[in-house]
Amino acid sequence: MKRLVAVAVVLGLAGCGATIAETPSTGGKVTVRNCGVDVTFDQAPKRVVTNDSGIAELMFALGLGDRMAGYVLGDSQEGDVGSSPWKADFAKVPKLASEINKEVVQGASADLVFAGWNYGFSESTGFTPEALKGLGVATYQLTEACLNGVGKQRGIMPPLDALYTDLRNLGTIFGVSDRADALITGYQKQVADAEKLLAGKPRPKVFLYDSGLDQPFTAGKNAAPQDIIGKAGGDNIFGDLDDSWTTVGWESVVARAPEVILINDYADGDANTPDQKRAFLESYPALKEVPAVRDKRFFVLPYAALVESPRNPAAIESFARFLAQG
């Protein structure tokens, strides 16, 4: 493998749905299953507020930017806009705030909030689907972030299944099922082609490093990196954790001896850039003999490619090509 940080530009088939000629529906009662609950819409929402870059891109990929009242995006995710295949859509739709709350939603006259647990929804802040229901605002929850009934743990299905489920559901809600089906078909082919690159070859152990100096924040089996790593030909060293994004200990990282470290390009306040994160990993004494650090095997993907989003299939292809270099 190349002994340097490889930064991936994730495009691929991300915008393949744009060529599907289909006018979004404005009416018709539909019901979809979202996070284990049947949710009914009397008509397609017209003023959607999204939270997080990947969630906004799900709307953009389906050609639904004109249904958005605006998006909420944390300051640490601003880099995702610059690298987005839907940069032009971000420019057309207003950014409402850096943090979502009831006032932002009411100020936008939203009829739907599309967010997820720890992607906007939070019991601690009181910004929950139940609270918004009391304001007469419907909600749709990101499937990757569904609470699974065990404390605050999240995730109820494999990550790519979560992506495809949300695309299908949004297609049904907004009357653009043909667009959703076309995107899913393209993504499935892209993933299948990527899987061939390392078929029959040894599977390297991979550690997803999101953030954290005292304790690392990483991805369990229900977060998007599980399938990004697995479909690219590697094994997530924390794929046995029944959670999405979670905190572990450095001693666990050392014990599992990753051969590759996948770095999330996400500003966390301690190490804001991939170079700073890599410098920390290389300087941390306990990691000195970890194979990935010793051999300088690092790869970088943007935040929006590592949470559930339409960038996931292209991220798989990009990481697979890196791993295939040997």
UniProtKB/TrEMBL annotation:
Limits of the Fe/B12 periplasmic-binding domain: 47-326
Question: One short Pfam family name for this protein?
Answer: Peripla_BP_2
Write the record's keywords in alphabetical order, separated by commas: Lipoprotein, Signal
Q: Does the keyword Signal apply?
A: yes
First and last residue of the signal peptide: 1-21
Xref: InterPro entries:
ABC_Transporter_SBP (IPR050902), ABC_transptr_periplasmic_BD (IPR002491)
Q: Name the SUPFAM superfamilies for this protein.
A: Helical backbone' metal receptor
Would I find Translocase among this entry's keywords? Answer: no
**Which family does the UniProt entry place this protein in?**
Belongs to the bacterial solute-binding protein 8 family.
User: Could you identify this protein by its name?
Assistant: ABC-type iron transporter, substrate-binding lipoprotein
Species name for this entry?
A: Saccharothrix espanaensis (strain ATCC 51144 / DSM 44229 / JCM 9112 / NBRC 15066 / NRRL 15764)
